[in-house]
Amino acid sequence: MARQSPQRPDADEPELDDTTGPTEPDATTEPAAAAEADASGDADAGASRALWDELRIDPVEIALPAGTGYTLRAYRPAGELTPTDVAERDADDPFLARRQVVEAEDDENEDVVILDEEVAREFAESDDEEKRAKGATADAEAKEEATEESAEKADDEEVPVFLTHRGRLLLFKTPESLVSFVRSGAPNDLSQLDSWNDLSERVEPADIAPLDEDVYELDLVVENLRGGHDTWDPTLLIEAGEVARDLAYALRLPAVLDMLSAGSSLDDLDEALRASVNGGIGGFLGRRRLKKIGAQTASLGWRTIVGKISAVVDWRD
Questions:
Q1: Residue 170: closest CA among 253, 84, 239
Q2: Domain count of the fold of the chain
Q3: What is the pLDDT of residue 242?
Q4: Which domain holds residue 143?
């Protein structure tokens, strides 16, 4: 039987084209778009960091029991800064006002009234001799020189300054509200910086993106300490100590500075935490020191610190 040849399509009928079906998406399209978006995001982030690096000011995010907010922080030589004015804040504090009255009364009671003229002359002569002796000794001169040198070094030391006003920390719940305040020209303690005007002209809400090391979770510190030694988070607690010291200095909170000063129990906690994250024998000794620190004492101390900082925050929407 003869094999029939396949029929050819009629000339009037159009030939089917395999390419007329649905077009498959190019496998390289989506990855390329994602890569382009990532590159754009990296460029924006780089531009933001360039702004902060140039002006030497940084956005900071702080979480407190009342909420989380954004603010700004800079470091400058102490001699270039005027500290925040706490007179109005302290006047609003009834406990502080009462303490100042008591201190003033104590100072008045220290005055000595001497009725006997002869005894008075003896006191006066004794004081004069003591003053002359102190002024004549080389130790006194050396001490005075050391004090002057210490004061000069203190003026050169870089210290923190935040977005504060009249002794209160300004915290903003959104980047937009922070930028709006910066542009408004409202009075604040950062406006004394030479780079402040540039910032107010150039900053955008997208620039308010704190680095990981500038995000502080003070709201978690007390609960973490209450969990006991095995649950303590060294990074959380060390960073909390750093920002608490900065805030205490900038906001003029001497009680907080004392609680975190060298030799205090909370400073011992900080040093032990820092040692514990290191390897080798130093880390081992640090962990042993942590075991000797009372969890209750540490949590109570930090609750006081967080409370004092929270009390001087001015929340802005």
A1: 84
A2: 1
A3: 98
A4: 103-155
